[in-house]
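Figure 2 data, in text form.
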Amino acid sequence: MASPINRTISVAPMLDWTDKHCRYFLRQISQHTLLYTEMVTTGAIIFGKGDYLAYNDAEHPVALQLGGSDPTDMARCAVKAQEYGYDEVNINVGCPSDRVQNGRFGACLMAEPETVAQCIKAMQAEVDIPVTVKSRIGIDDMDEYRDLTNFIDVVADAGCEIFTVHARKAWLKGLSPKQNRDVPPLMYDRVYQLKQEFADLHISINGGVKTLDDTANHLQHLDGVMIGREVYSNPYILAEVDQRFYQGTTSTATRPAKTRVEIVQAMLPYIEQQIELGARPWHVARHMLGLFQGQPGGRIWRRYLSQNGTKRDAGIELLTDALDTLLEAQAQATKFQSEMLP
């Protein structure tokens, strides 16, 4: 199914990280990067008491990542995603945690391409938004290139045209989820080869992308790049994405990026709104710790938020005081440097 979404650059779904507050914050930095929710299970959506699909309209384009393996439940949740206005629903076939395996979804489904294919068919029969898949290059001893192509073949035959491939295999036994993000070696060439063999499919790569130069190199071989942990630790990496990768696709891509200070100021009304709804400032501010990464005063910003963010009486001044402290430190550093000049 063709999609109008420009998915050249995306931010990976990251459990406990890419919640609605994080996504709203990242949208202040890039207008066009495709954002993904944390993985939400079918059980949570169907039986949970909370509203697991809530998001802010400003987050678009935004995709729901769904965890599950029952075609009927997956279709039911896809319908809900479309009703909520999500731009895409993505099937998680990459998470290696024990909890996910016990629920029979995530990376273990790479051993069950027919199950994933059945989910694709059931979901696409009910919704018009794209139904996509995020996978690994293999699992355990099913890690040969032919295993990967067999999985892609079966799922693509069911109608899926859009894949994001984490360029590491996953060990379902013996490695923790954290280790599975680092220990298995990255095999970018295997994903490049996949694109050559399945030229008609839209294939993005994920894993180990740390710079926009890395991103540009991957785009010489592939259709898209999904960036994960680097965005979370250094979110301002997205500031150049619109002009660098979306130039010419939309008039808004020519706008200069907001400065870090402008981003903080843009977040203040949102935080005030969330406080009125019962959230604490730290629920939002924790995603902003890395905003001044690598900048003068960056450690001061991070330390101020960390030390004061969880206090019970913290209010909107958490951000304004942190910013004032940062700017004062930068001013003092500039003054010191000028005084040291001959």
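Caption note: The CA atoms of residues 42 and 48 lie 9 Å apart.
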